[in-house]
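Quick one: sequence plus calcium ion SMILES, need structure tokens.
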Amino acid sequence: MKRTWIGVVVLLAASCGGSSGVAADADALPPLDAPVADTPDATPGDAPDARDANPSDAPDAVPADLSGLDVPEPPADATGDTSIDAAPADAGPDASPGQPVPTMVTVPAGSFEMGDHSGLGGEDPKHPSDELPLHTVAISAFRMGRTEVTCRQYAAFLEDALAKGILAVASGGVTAAGGGATWFQTAEADATSPISFANPHFTVRAGRDDHPVTHVRWEGAAAYANWLGALQGLSPCIDLPAGTIDLAGTCYRLPTEAEWEYAAVGGKTTAYPIYPWGDEMDPARANWPQSGDPWEGGPDPQTTPVGFYDGSLRLKADFGWPAAADSYQTHDGTNGFGLVDMAGNAWEWTGDWYRNDYYAVSPAADPSGPTQAEASAMPDGNRYRVMRGGNWYNGTTPDRLDGHSRVSNRDPAYFRGPGDPNGPWFHVGFRVVLAHPKGGQP
Ligand SMILES: [Ca+2]
Ligand SMILES: [Ca+2]
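Reply:
Sure thing.
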């Protein structure tokens, strides 16, 4: 991991002010009946995924107008220095993984019919679809990370946040400096974690810099977003540990569930696609459990570098992957907004709480998701955040290879049982959005 820019980051961030974000309640919802209208599987092992048989592994239960806003410009990078650009301009497909902070792309404002257009939401015969009814949703423009946050990018946060006294590490568990919920697990706590810690430095496992970071809990994803905003002098929108998000703020944060699906569709709002690229269940377009990619069978997590599936012929000489094959021909999984890995690789946290029947009560404009109290109670009695996009690990059945990666697929933890998806699992990551950015208009 390169650390030459860390000192610059510290100086930059130290010059930036910040204030506590004010959490906004979710849009008003009608009174709720019993929060769980159907019965999730109660047995973690009773799941169709072939890989779920290994109990030592992560459980299958896993699991507007924006003009006029004054947002600081990102720091100039015309001098060839290596300081962090907190908000790089929209850039070409090779710009993101090597950056210490995510490259952001613009997702224009629009409206769409959110939900399952293909009749696949009820594919689990034991569980009715939670992807209906289709409902019209208008989304304000925002910017979104072109890729999942990478190990390199998350390690930059860990390193800088430790130096600033924002976080603490104990026995491989990363928390806020004052303790509390786990944000992340290093390799000292979970050998499959791609980042290790030897005070005072975090180091990414060899060859993993540009893979999506995993082993991140919701709070650890939220803390990253707040940190990234502070690099630009933006006040945090996510109140930790309250876990509330100010959607009216100008900030980096996690996407809402609606923003995530709208972004995944990539502008195909009339011919609604099953996957970000279209309807073809093509395992060469995304890191799914049976993509045949050259990380399969290697050490966990069997993630692939972000943006790997871009249509290129990839070479072992460039990646040093564990499989013997010299090359792997990818198909292009990039969607209409230029986003990659919106299907597969790592699950992605959203900011929303999960409620199974939310689509029946969702506001029509920029829905915020339910409040924690309105969220569905899981079999263990807890409420969980929504994850989206499927992953490299779950979801292979004889007729479904897609890792739960349909654009409309909702958090399968609800389908699978009482396992807490908010664990530092080896298949859970995230990407950030920049809401209300200056110049964010399409
Ligand atoms: Ca794979
Ligand atoms: Ca993903």
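The longest strand covers residues 347-353. The helical segments are 6-14, 151-163, 218-230, 257-265, 316-319, 413-416.
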